[in-house]
């Protein structure tokens, strides 16, 4: 299968200019951001502290790291703060400078781009449609051992397939291969963290690194706040010395973060809503003849078009005319022109896209 260069999803700023519409007029099923917005407690606290722009943030982010520690269970001394998950993806790759690394295909494109910058030899572990894009741990372990892999990069749940590896499996994979594991948990909060999150592993195992974002579950991509967990003292020291800028996270991100990580009511609300809507959307998609959704633990699902007359590009353009954005996945490695991805939005919009998909494929059956 042709291996295309993978780009990110829709740029709503470009689309708004192209169609001469405000960004708010689009319904975005491509970005995987929660439709329920940010924590209201965090928002109210921000409103009451807008005057804080005139002071510097705490350079050690003590209260923010304590809030994150309470949220994810990791030792606060093992928590690093940065400007989004991308900061840590780039920084860990530069710092660890892997020579041989495994990445999943299909998966998030930034891993490969950054690995190539440090002249790393990249080995692709193919997630196969015939196995529902699930990970075969024995096969992955054999690939790592056979090729003397020093680093494995995981997105868990994986984007765009939604496939997962449990915390115990990740711990076992590291110990059986001896490789460093960098685990991107951007989407883990949409599933059972007790089963799938590796925070507890990274908190004890110095060869496991967890990266998390606040963009998706907390619906705050604009504040550019991310964090990472590592118990590797040498890595933490080098990160602080070589990559982390003084006051690298602005005071508004700090204020929002301190509140939203402690807002348990908000956490439960978002998780339960997505659990409910994931069930509804997957079951509804399975009832539409001409498409096949794959099981997912994320807040999105990969879907294959099984109708010979239609491609993902056709479907993208159909929805764009209705100011709805889906993710055409034809440029993901190991996928093709028949694949697209939908994230789960609120009940109203989920019902709307099911209605349009049913009408679209019903008209060409």
UniProtKB/TrEMBL annotation:
Matches recorded under CDD domains: AAT_like
Gene3D superfamilies (alphabetical): Aspartate Aminotransferase, domain 1, Type I PLP-dependent aspartate aminotransferase-like (Major domain)
Per UniProt, which keywords does this protein have?
A: Aminotransferase, Pyridoxal phosphate, Transferase
Q: Does the keyword rRNA-binding apply?
A: no
One GO MF term: transaminase activity
Q: Which cofactor does it need?
A: pyridoxal 5'-phosphate
Residue ranges occupied by any Aminotransferase class I/classII large domain in the UniProt entry: 25-356
Please provide an example of a Pfam family that matches this protein in its UniProt record: Aminotran_1_2
Query: Matching InterPro entries, A to Z?
Result: Aminotransferase_I/II_large, PyrdxlP-dep_Trfase, PyrdxlP-dep_Trfase_major, PyrdxlP-dep_Trfase_small
> What's this protein's name?
Aminotransferase class I/II-fold pyridoxal phosphate-dependent enzyme
